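Deviations from the work plan: none for this task. Representative record:
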Amino acid sequence: MIDVQNITKRYGHHTAIDRVTFSVAKGEVLAFLGPNGAGKTTTMRILTCFMPATEGRARVAGFDCTDQPLDVKRQIGYLPETPPVYQELTVTEYLTFVGRLRGMTGQTLTAALDHTIGRLELGSVRHRLIGNLSRGYRQRVGLAQALLHDPPVLILDEPTVGLDPKQIIEIRELIKSLAGSHSVILSTHILPEATAVCQRVVIINKGRIVAEDTPEQLSARLRQSEKVSITLKTVPPDCELKLRSIPGILNVLPGQGGGNFLLECELGRDLRDEIARLVVSSHWGLLELRTISMTLEDVFLQLTRHEDHLVEPAEAMVSASAERTDT
Amino acid sequence: MSPVQAIIAKELRGYFVSPIVYVVGAVFLLIFGLLSYLYVGFAGAQAIQLMQMQGGVAQINLNDLVFRNLFASVRIVLLIILPILTMRLFAEERKLRTFEFLLTSPIRIHDIIIGKFVSVLLIYLGLLGLTVLVPTVLMLFSDFDWNPIWTGYLGMTLLGALFLSVGVFASALTENQIVAAFVGFGTLLSMWLIAGLGSLLGDTTAGRVISYVSYMEHYDRLVRGLIDTSDLVYFGSGLVLMLFLTHRIVESTRWK
């Protein structure tokens, strides 16, 4: 659906994005992940024909963004960073205006309006002025604007900014429900969002794509070792040494709190059985044993901060992986 | 409803929701009424003077004494208030970040510009329509020729449309509405004053060109009751030029 080949955008001497290449299949949800100023918005603006690329080609649904901008625009629903709403209009008036700009009339427009308002739960505010709505509602009105004409391609620039946690979950569910029938690109710097809703992640930093894969494979690829966390009831002085003596264990690091250790094992080896056997036979009292998988956050930090070595991998692993564990 | 009509409807709604139209409209009608009253008053005073000198009832020409002066003075009012009407058109879109939305909608840039221009033109024509009350009321008390009044209204329509197109252009330049209004006002005032430069240079090529660029002589002829094709061409081409420049400015924001 979306095919981007080597696009570069320069503002004077500053290169905002540099030879970016990626594609999105029909029905796929792709996350565009990167720190602020990485070039996410610039890429989206090129795809939506707001601005042309300095070099390279971008195609949406078979239409070229430079040569056939009107055709491209018809295929796209776009939510910019700031929801593009007119404060002096009511929600219904605004969405009617949007529909008419997109050439919708009569029954089609009314049906689309009701459907979208229902989908985004805007029914209770549909006759209120947008200027009087809260940030979260405005964001949803912005999203309604992008969804109104049921476009095959959706480009959402940080769609959950300004929403409360409940709304964030609702919007993510909504985006997930669009997968399959719509191609979606969403930009975010909230990592769990990318893991939660996207099939594929493109990580962009300083205008360049630094990684592109599924969230699972990205973390697998960057993981240099398997990690197991254990918690012991009693900690005899020689236990660290004994743990190290298990074949395949590369390193033993003290974890958080007393009795907790982080064991680095050789890649591809599951040593949980051996570790458990040793602990039990030594009567140290096994309270907890679990493998730690690398979260997308760790991947992201590793990739985007690679040059400055800001994060000690092991530390980052312990602190960042609390929420995503499997036993 | 076509996209252009949708934009016109949305802009009109925007104007009537904000206080701009009410304030500008009230000020314009107040000043128009005040000027009419003053010129009628002066004409009355002149008539009394004539009566005293000549005796009997003097015939005064309302077309010359009231309407020509009134229409000439209206220029200054339009010069000040029309940039205020147009200042929000593009500047506000930029400020509120809705500009990106408009430019990524499947409509052409000239549709956006025409929609916005027509909406403000309609408001101006509405205000102008209300001022027809002045000659209508005067008709009850006096006799005058309606033809120069219609050409005067044609002149005000064309002049207003030109001013509005300059205002639309100024609004496209910036995201600050005050700056837009001021740029519009400055441009229009300069176009007025270069008429003086043109007459200083006299009947040279430069003088003729400069005089032609200023709207003064074109408008004056219409107010005097003369419809000259060259004047119509002047207003028409000026308007198209300004809207074309607006198109270039809007287009260029995409490249920045």
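The longest strand of chain A covers residues 14-24.
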